[in-house]
Design brief:
Rossmann fold; 2 domains; alpha/beta; 41% helix
Length: 270
């Protein structure tokens, strides 16, 4: 995809993203922030989406600058930051940050730059560059294939049960890298971080009910040709299979499915 296509795609997903993806990202963001002494700090949130980490940091008294490649996401995040006038959001390329060395106390990216493929380390290197010596750089990425989050697993299993060669198997690009804690740690070290650590975390991740799952998440799923083909060739059966798989998902104590991720963080060298 070109950068323009990606931006347009995410612009169209702002509302469903905020409703169904942001709550899970927010839980991961709070875990990440708990591990960094950031109260009152100047924070950079990279690939911020609708603001899961930016809002959590702002509520802790931090001055937050958030960036994303999607103008739609930035517009919505700007609205959500309205009660925090010391914070702001803007469209920016994460691999070419427009700040000088050491302007921030910390930089974070939750389920963001680890989707950049070969450019992931470039983005991380930029994050390290703009963080002051001994400042914190932290990231979160899924710990399992198919995104690690519950959103795509029922879809993949339902497509597999169709067993239709014309549909094939669900393929989600750029979710096979950085799934291991060691991979995240290595990426941070390659970007220049020291004192790198990581841990596995799990949070409850709300999803729509089995009956509304496909309708609510259709804007996300339309990006996958396997989904479009499955709906076109097996609409009723496919919907029934997806509903079954949603009902069969692993759930936590609160009744929501469980999302598994890895949290990794390090420090900018002194």
């Amino acid at each position: 995809m070109t950068e323009h296509t990606v931006e347009h795609f995410w612009d169209e997903l702002v509302a469903p993203y905020e409703l169904w993806a942001d709550p899970t990202s927010a839980r991961f963001a709070r875990l990440l922030l708990d591990r960094a002494p950031i109260d009152g700090s100047n924070i950079l949130d990279v690939a911020a989406g609708t603001g899961a980490l930016a809002l959590a940091a702002a509520e802790r008294g931090c001055h937050v600058r958030a960036i994303d490649s999607s103008s739609g996401m930035v517009k919505r995040l700007t609205e959500r930051l309205g009660s925090h006038p010391e914070c702001s959001a803007e469209v920016m390329d994460a691999t070419k940050l427009l700040w000088d060395h050491g302007e921030f106390d910390a930089a974070f990216s939750v389920l963001g730059v680890t989707y950049f493929g070969p450019a992931t380390v470039t983005a991380l290197t930029e994050m390290v560059r703009v963080v002051r010596p001994d400042g914190v750089v932290g990231i979160v990425h899924w710990a399992r294939p198919l995104g690690g989050g519950p959103m795509f697993l029922p879809l993949a299993r339902a497509i597999e049960r169709l067993a239709d060669p014309e549909v094939g198997a669900l393929e989600i690009p750029v979710t096979t890298a950085y799934l291991e804690r060691a991979e995240l740690e290595d990426a941070l070290r390659e970007a220049g971080c020291v004192d790198v650590r990581s841990e596995a975390v799990a949070v409850d991740s709300p999803v729509p009910t089995p009956e509304t799952f496909l309708a609510e998440l259709d804007p996300f799923f339309r990006m996958f040709p396997q989904y479009r083909t499955a709906i076109g060739r097996h609409a009723d059966r496919f919907r029934a299979l997806v509903a079954q798989e949603v009902s069969n998902m692993e759930v936590g104590e609160g009744g929501d499915p469980i999302a598994h991720a890895n949290v990794a963080y390090g420090r900018s060298p002194r």
